[in-house]
Amino acid sequence: MVRTGNRFLSLVRLALGPPVRRIRREFAWHAPGADFRVERRGPEGFTHIVATHSSPLLRPLPRADLGLQLNKIVNLRIAAGRLDGVVLNPGVRLSFWHEVGRPSRRRGFVEGMVLDHGCITAGVGGGLCQMTNLLYWMSLHAPLTVVERWRHSYDVFPDTGRTQPFGSGATCAWPVLDLQIENRTSLPYRLSVTVNDTHLTGSWTTTEPHLNRYEIEERGHRITHDGPGLYVRHNELWRLTFDGNGSLWSEELVARNDALMMYAPFLPPAT
Fold first, then answer.
1. Of all residues in the chain, what percent are helix, strand and coil, respectively (each to 5)?
2. Which of 162-186 are b and which e, b meaning 16 or more Cβ less than 10 Å from the residue's Cβ?
3. What is the per-residue pLDDT across 59-73, written as a single tens digit (0 to 9) for each?
4. Of 51, 109, 114, 151, which is most buried with the most CB atoms under 10 A?
């Protein structure tokens, strides 16, 4: 009887979990304390580039189905249409899911690649993490504050062709895992996002010259052997702010990453 009751409760939690999480997120979007009322404007007046980045749409990833990568481009174009032209006025917060909305077939989203506990699978809206990765990386190079970011718990692919430090992305999953960026400055910032035939490209621009420069520095990178065949990768990401004269003005810890490696690491021989 006890086992039957526990199983019933587990099924109830499983069934009620998604709507409950949606209600919680909706409540957070409308609760006092955070302003999610972004505007949309054209590029006029936003002539000063603060941060820009581009990432290829297709990569030679092992075990990754090409069809899912192609479908990802469809999903990214829909998301870009919801995000391009968003303006963060002072005090306003951008929520990725608040702007993009639920990735459903009815809205045109298709099955793309999804990483589920380190395994590659398919899911409607799959591939949108490339967008949150881009937004997170650009925001680290701008005077904006990341108030919600979820790290990837698994390191799925080797570093071949990697141009950014490990752990510099942001995962997303509707509606629980969101990326939220707040403007705590006195200037408005405009987001531009485009998807062409080969790349996803974005930028943050503003209305006045911005002299500070930002760099992301990886510190404390290491791989630990935590059990038979179990390797975990660790690091910290620090944002360095330089003033107009090139002098280091501040250092800020922005992320601490720990990810289970899903491939055999290269380790130096023991001495």
1. 25, 35, 40
2. eeebbbbbbbbbbbebbbbbbbebe
3. 766 666 778 889 999
4. 109
Which residues, in sequence order, are CB contacts of 34 under 8 Å at separation 6+?
Answer: 28, 93, 182
Burial of residue 252, with CB atoms counted within 10 A of its CB: 0-12 exposed, 13-18 middle, 19 or more buried: exposed
DSSP H or E segment with residue 141: none
How far apart are the C-alpha atoms of 68 and 58, rounded to whole Å? 10
Please report which residue ranges of the chain form alpha helices under DSSP H. 2-30, 66-83, 96-100, 129-140
Tokens of 239: 């944002």
Task: State how far the alpha carbon of 21 is from the alpha carbons of 12, 48, 107, 209, 262, in Å.
Answer: 14, 39, 21, 41, 29
> Exposed/middle/buried for 149, CB within 10 Å: 0-12, 13-18, 19+?
buried
Count Cβ atoms below 10 Å from residue 242 Cβ, excluding itself: 15
Q: What is the pTM of this model?
A: 0.88
Residues 179, 145: Cα–Cα separation, whole Å: 11
Q: 269 CB contacts (<8 Å, ≥6 apart)?
A: none
Token reading at 43: 């590029």
Question: Furthest-apart CA pair in the chain: how many Å?
Answer: 73
* Residues 141, 217: Cα–Cα separation, whole Å: 11
Q: Which helix (H) or strand (E) holds 102?
A: none
Q: Which stretches in the chain have pLDDT values below 70?
A: 1-18, 60-64, 118, 159-161, 266-271
φ, ψ of residue 11 to 5 degrees: the values are -65, -40
